[in-house]
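Whiteboard transcription, Tuesday session. T.W. wrote the structure tokens on the left side:
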């Protein structure tokens, strides 16, 4: 299905088609996650900023291998660990595939991020959720 990724991104009206935002590059998040051994070195996905008006911090397409982060998080004062956790939580869906509906397994995997609780609190305080 990933062969349709370009069409998926082309049809999307809210995904930016690039990982580089005004203040943050989502590839930096992935590099930090790899450095912390939270994701495999060979894990591949497309990263994008989402401009839709939503309070959801991030999302993904399992079929397309695309992870997007809400453009509202591309601001100067957003802590790196919040971006990292937002990307990581969606990459956990990709890691688990269609087993990500196993809520207990998904939450266990997400909790491996050392700043998970702080990131979730920050998002909640700013009216966002994952």
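and on the right, the sequence the group agreed on:
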């Amino acid at each position: 299905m990933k062969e349709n990724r370009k069409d998926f991104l082309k049809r999307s009206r809210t995904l930016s088609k690039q990982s580089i935002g005004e203040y943050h590059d989502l590839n930096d998040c992935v590099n930090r996650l790899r450095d912390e051994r939270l994701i495999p070195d060979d894990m591949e996905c497309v990263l994008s900023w989402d401009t839709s008006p939503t309070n959801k911090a991030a999302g993904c397409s399992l079929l397309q291998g695309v992870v997007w982060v809400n453009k509202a998080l591309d601001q100067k004062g957003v802590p790196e660990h919040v971006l990292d956790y937002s990307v990581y939580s969606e990459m956990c869906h990709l890691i688990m595939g269609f087993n990500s509906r196993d809520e207990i397994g998904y939450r266990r995997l997400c909790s491996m991020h050392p700043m998970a609780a702080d990131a979730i609190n920050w998002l909640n305080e700013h009216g966002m959720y994952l």
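Someone added at the bottom: DSSP finds five helices and three strands in the chain.
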